[in-house]
Specification:
This protein is an alpha/beta fold. It contains 10 helices and 10 strands. The chain binds 5'-O-[(R)-(carboxyoxy)(hydroxy)phosphoryl]adenosine and zinc ion.
Length: about 350
C-alpha cells in the first residue's frame, strides 16, 4: 500500500478552530484560532462556537497549507475530529473535511478527539514505547488509558463526575478569575503555599483508578462562603495553590500506582491540563523515582490542536482505515468506540 505522507488535520470539537499539515508524522503547520468571544460568558457557548468555526474554517485551512508551503493537490488524506465534543461545532469540521476529501479524491478518516490528544504526545516523542500508560486530562475528561500497541486502548479508570479541567475552570470562575481557569490558577499558584488550606483528595486511599472532582469544587465553594472578600483577595495565590495541590496530587499518585501495577515501559500526560506546571514537575519527580520515562507533549500539542488529529489520522490511514462519506458526528464518542 502506498504510504500517505501529507495529512491535513482538522479540529473543531469545542472553541478552537484548528488546521494542521503533517508530512511523515512531522508537523509542517499547526494553525490554532482560539475563539475569544466565550470569555465574557465564563464558558463555551455552543451556538457561538459553531458560528465562529463556520467563519474561520476556510481561512484557517488555507493558512495551514500556505505555512506548510504546499498546494491542496499535494495532500494524501484528511483527518478530522468526529467526537466527542459539541455536535454543532464538530459538524462544521466534519462536513468541511468530507467535502474537501471528495473534491480532491483523497481518503478521509474520522478521529476521536481523545485519541488525538494521546497521539499529540507521539509528535513530540516519537520514541514512546509500549506498554504505554497515558493520563488524559482535559476540560471534559480525566482518565488513565493503557496502550499495549498502536491504536489499542484499555481504560484503566476515569472520573465519575467532573473532569479535572472543569474543576480548574469552575474553581477559577468562583474566584472571579475568568475562563479558561487552568492557566490562571497555575500562574497564581506559583506565588502561593500549597498547604495553606487542605482541600479534599477524592478516592486517594481506595485501591482503584477512579477520579472525582465535583467534591473539590463544592469544598472550594463552601470555603469561599465562609471567608470575607478581603481575606479571599489577600490570600488568592494561597487558595489557588492549595486547590491546585489537591487536584494534582490525586492525578500523580494514581498514575504512578497504575504504572507500577501494569508494568508499563512509558508514561504520558496529555490534554489541556497536561500544560499544568505542578502536574508536569511532580509527575516527573515521581516517575524518575520509579525509573519510568515520562513523556510530555510540547505546550502547542497539549490544548486542542489539529496536528494531534493529523498524527492519529496518519496512524489509522496508513493502517488502511477509511471513513465513509456518511460518517456522523458523535458528541459522546468513547475512546476505542468505532463508528463507520
Ligand atoms: O484539551 P483542552 O484544550 O480541551 C478539551 O478537550 O477540554 O483542555 C482544556 C482544559 C481547560 O479546562 C483548561 O482550564 C485546562 O485545559 N488547562 C489547564 C492549563 N492549561 C489549560 N489546566 C491547568 N493548568 C494549566 N496550565
Ligand atoms: Zn481537548
Amino acid at each position: 500500500m502506498k504510504k500517505l505522507r501529507y495529512i491535513l488535520g482538522v479540529e473543531t470539537s469545542c472553541d478552537e478552530t484548528s488546521a494542521a499539515v503533517i508530512k511523515d508524522n512531522t508537523v509542517c503547520a499547526n494553525i490554532i484560532s482560539s475563539q475569544e468571544i466565550h470569555a465574557q460568558y465564563g464558558g463555551v457557548v455552543p451556538e457561538l462556537a459553531s458560528r465562529a468555526h463556520i467563519r474561520l474554517i476556510v481561512p484557517i485551512v488555507d493558512n495551514a497549507l500556505k505555512k506548510a508551503e504546499i498546494g491542496k493537490n499535494q495532500l494524501d488524506g484528511i483527518a478530522v475530529t468526529y467526537g466527542p465534543g459539541l455536535v454543532g461545532a464538530l459538524l462544521v469540521g466534519l462536513n468541511f473535511s468530507k467535502g474537501m476529501a471528495q473534491a480532491l479524491g483523497i481518503p478521509f478518516i474520522g478521529i476521536n478527539h481523545m485519541e488525538g490528544h494521546i497521539y499529540g504526545n507521539f509528535l513530540t516523542n516519537p520514541e514512546i514505547n509500549f506498554p504505554h500508560l497515558s493520563l488524559v486530562v482535559s476540560g471534559g475528561h480525566t482518565m488513565l488509558v493503557l496502550m499495549r500497541q498502536h491504536l489499542e486502548y484499555q481504560l484503566i479508570g476515569e472520573t465519575r463526575d467532573d473532569a479535572v479541567g472543569e474543576a480548574f475552570d469552575k474553581g477559577a470562575k468562583m474566584l472571579g478569575l475568568g475562563y479558561p481557569g487552568g492557566p490562571v490558577i497555575d500562574k497564581l499558584a506559583v506565588e502561593g503555599q500549597p498547604d495553606f488550606h487542605k482541600f479534599p483528595r477524592a478516592y486517594l486511599k481506595g485501591n482503584n483508578y477512579e477520579f472525582s472532582y465535583s467534591g473539590l469544587k463544592t469544598a472550594l465553594l463552601v470555603y469561599l462562603k465562609s471567608k470575607s472578600k478581603d481575606f479571599i483577595e489577600r490570600n488568592l495565590a494561597h487558595i489557588c495553590s492549595s486547590y491546585q495541590q489537591a487536584a494534582v496530587e490525586v492525578l500523580v499518585k494514581k498514575t504512578i500506582r497504575a504504572a507500577r501495577e501494569y508494568n508499563v515501559k512509558s508514561i504520558g500526560v496529555v490534554g489541556g491540563v497536561a500544560a499544568n506546571s505542578l502536574l508536569r514537575q511532580w509527575l516527573q519527580k515521581e516517575a524518575s523515582r520509579i525509573n519510568q520515562s515520562l513523556f510530555l507533549p510540547d505546550f502547542a500539542y497539549c490544548t486542542d490542536n489539529a496536528a494531534m488529529i493529523a498524527r492519529a489520522g496518519s496512524q489509522r490511514l496508513n493502517a488502511g482505515e477509511r471513513s465513509r462519506q456518511n460518517l456522523n458526528a458523535y458528541p459522546a464518542l468513547r475512546l476505542g468506540e468505532k463508528k463507520s
